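Hi,

Apologies if this is the wrong queue. I'm a grad student, and the batch job for Thioredoxin-like protein 5 from Rhodotorula diobovata produced an output file that my downstream script rejects. I'm not sure whether the problem is my script or the file. Here is the sequence I used:
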Amino acid sequence: MPLLPPGDLFSPESILSQIPTSTSPESPHFLIFFAEWCPDCTEVQSSLDQHVPDKNSTLVLVGDRTQWKESKFREPPFNVTRIPTLIRVEQGGDALASSLDSAPRLVESELRSPEQLSQFVA
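Support response: The file is valid. Your script probably expects a header line. Output copied below for reference.
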C-alpha cells in the first residue's frame, strides 16, 4: 500500500491520483487515514494490516496533532473528522471526487470489530 505522509507535498489531489480509474464496487480502493500518535489508530493497526489489501489501499498519515487539527483532509472531498477512518472508494475517474462524500466508511470504534471490518472490505 502506498504510504503518503503529511505535508504540503501530499495534497488532496495527490491522494486522489493514487486511486485507479478502474476502481468500482467490484474492485474498490481503500483510503486509510491514520496517525501514529492516535491511540485508536494504534489499537486497530493490526486488524487493518490483516484485512485491508495492500495493493488496493493507500495509507494517509495525517501528521501530528497540530497538523491534524488544520488538515485539508477535514474538508471536501474527504470530510474526515475522526481518525482512524477507512473509506471504501467505489468510483474512479471523473466521478471520484464527487463520490467521496457519500462513500462508505468505518470510523474509530467501528474498526475495532474484526467481523465488521472483514465484511466492509469484502
